[in-house]
């Protein structure tokens, strides 16, 4: 199963974007993921629909790589009401 990484264009730095394209995943850059509170406060991505946050871009990269290696975080997408900031 192909993993999917989605991120807000303004939330992820260039080095993190470069890492994402090397991973075995579909990478989707969006102008907005509608999680503005999270986006404003810290780096985050959606990995297979699940929000994954960190205090720094380096920590986020490490978390994504760990989840990709271990296969965790799949199939746990939670539906949120329109405008919800998870």
Any overview of this molecule?
By secondary structure, the chain is of the alpha+beta class. 34% of the residues lie in helices and 23% in strands. Helix 1 packs parallel to helix 3. The radius of gyration is 12 Å and the shape is globular. The termini are far apart. Residues 74-84 have low confidence and may be disordered.
In brief:
It contains three helices and four strands.
Span of the ends, CA to CA? 26 Å
Radius of gyration: 12 Å
- What gross morphology would you assign? globular
Number of strands: 4
Protein name: DUF1450 domain-containing protein
Pfam families: DUF1450 (PF07293)
Organism: Halocatena marina
InterPro entries: DUF1450 (IPR009910)
Please describe the structure with a list of short key phrases separated by commas or semicolons.
single chain, 86 residues, alpha+beta, 4-stranded mixed sheet, 3 helices, 34% helix, globular, DUF1450 domain-containing protein, DUF1450
Layout: helices, strands, pairs:
Blueprint: E1 3-8, H1 14-22, E2 25-30, H2 36-41, E3 44-47, E4 50-53, H3 57-70
Parallel strand pairs: 1-2
Antiparallel strand pairs: 1-3, 3-4
Helix pairs in contact: 1-3
């Amino acid at each position: 199963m192909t993993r999917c990484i989605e991120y807000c264009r303004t939330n992820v730095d260039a080095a993190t974007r470069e890492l994402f394209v090397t991973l075995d995943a579909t990478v989707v850059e969006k102008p907005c993921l509608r999680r503005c509170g999270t986006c404003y406060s810290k780096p985050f991505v959606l990995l297979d629909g699940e929000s994954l946050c960190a205090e720094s871009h380096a920590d986020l990269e490490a978390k994504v790589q760990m989840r990709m290696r271990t296969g965790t975080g799949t199939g746990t997408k939670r539906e949120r009401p329109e405008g919800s900031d998870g």
